[in-house]
Amino acid sequence: MVSLPDVVASNARIPTTLPRNLVVVFAGATTGIGEATLKAFVKYAVAPRIYFLARSPESANRVAEECKLTNPQANFTIIKVDLSTVMQTDRACDEIKAKEKHVNLVVTSAGEVRLDLSPEGLHIALAAAFYTRIRIAQNLLPLLVAASKSSTLARVVNVAGGTKEGQIFTDDLPGLKRPLYRIRGHIISMTTLAMETLSEQAPGVAFVHDYPGTVMTPLVDGVPGWVGICLRLVAFILGGLLARWVCVPIEECGERHVFLGTSAKYPPKQGAAVGVPTLGDVKATNGVDGAKNSGMYSVAWDCEDREKVVEILDGLRKKGTKELVWDHVNGEFERIKAGKGVDE
Ligand SMILES: NC(=O)c1ccc[n+]([C@@H]2O[C@H](COP(=O)([O-])OP(=O)(O)OC[C@H]3O[C@@H](n4cnc5c(N)ncnc54)[C@H](OP(=O)(O)O)[C@@H]3O)[C@@H](O)[C@H]2O)c1
Q: Taking CB atoms and a 6 Å cutoff, what residues make up the pocket around ligand 1?
C-alpha cells in the first residue's frame, strides 16, 4: 500500500517536477471522486489548462470557481456534453483538438447507475462508464502521444474497477442480457483490455485503471425503484455506521487519484513522460502483463496492483478476447457514427 503521507509528499512535488501549463481533461468532475481529484490537482499544478467535460455547465462552473479560490492561475474551459452519447463525446474531443496540440493528462470518472438503453442503443450505465471513456482516450491519443514526446507527463486515469476484473461474456459483449450486478467483472475486464490495446498503440503514454474503494458520493442518489432503495440503504450503512472502517475519505481519494495521474510509479512502456520521480519506499508497480514499465496498470484503492489480475487477463488474452473486445467497441463506434440502430 502506498501510504497517504507518501501520496501527499509525491503530489507536493508536482509544482517543482512537472512543467507549468499542463493540459488536463476531466470528464465527470462535477461531483464525487472526479470533483475531489480536480480540487486536489489544482492545489499543486502550476497554471494548468483544464478542459472540463460536463453535462451541466452550471455545476462545472461552481466547481471551477471553487478551484480558482485555491489556484487563481488555473484556466478552465467548460464543454457541455452528455457523456452517455458517443456523438456528443466526439464533438467535445474535437473542441479540445481544435485548441490544443498536446494533452498531458485525461481523468475519466463519469458514470451513473441506470438500467435503460441510451438513444444510441448502448446499455446506458456502460455508455458513460465504459464506451465514451475509451472513446475520449482514443480521440485524444494523438495529443497524448504529442505530450509524451515533448513533456514529462502523458497519462490516462480511468476511475472504475481496476483489480476487480472477471470473466467476459463473449455471447453478450454489450452487457444487455444479464443484470448489472452480474456484468461487473465483465465490464471491468473489457475496460482493462481496451485500455491495454490503446497503450500498445501509444507506448509513450501511461494508462491507469483504478478501483477507488468505497467512497461516499452522490453515485446512488438518483437510482430509481427498489434497486435505488437497496443501494441507498447499503450506502447509509457503509457511509454512516461503518465509514471509519470501510470507506476511503473523499479528500484522500482525491489525493490518491492525483498520485495515480502524476507519479512515476506508473511509467509508460517507453519514453520520458514518467511523471513525478518516486521517493523512498515507493517503487514502480507491476502492469497488467506482470512487468514493470508495462504502460498499462490496474490498481486498487491503495494505489497498488493485485497479482490475480495478471492471471485473469492472461486467460482472456489466450482466448483472443482482447481482440474481440476491441473489435466490438470500435464496431459500436462505427455503427453509431453511421447513425444505425442496434439491429441494422
Ligand atoms: N463511489 C464509489 O464508492 C465508487 C466505487 C467504485 C467505483 N466507482 C466508480 O467511480 C466513478 C465515479 O463515481 P463517483 O462516486 O464519483 O460518482 P458521482 O459522484 O455520481 O460522479 C459521477 C460524475 O459523472 C457525471 N456524469 C454521469 N453521467 C454523465 C453523463 N451522461 N454526462 C456527463 N456527465 C455525467 C456526473 O455529473 P452530474 O453532476 O451531471 O450528475 C458526476 O460528475 C463511477 O464510474 C463509479 O462507478 C465509485
A: 28-34, 54-56, 59, 82-84, 109-112, 128-129, 159-161, 211-212, 214-215, 217-219
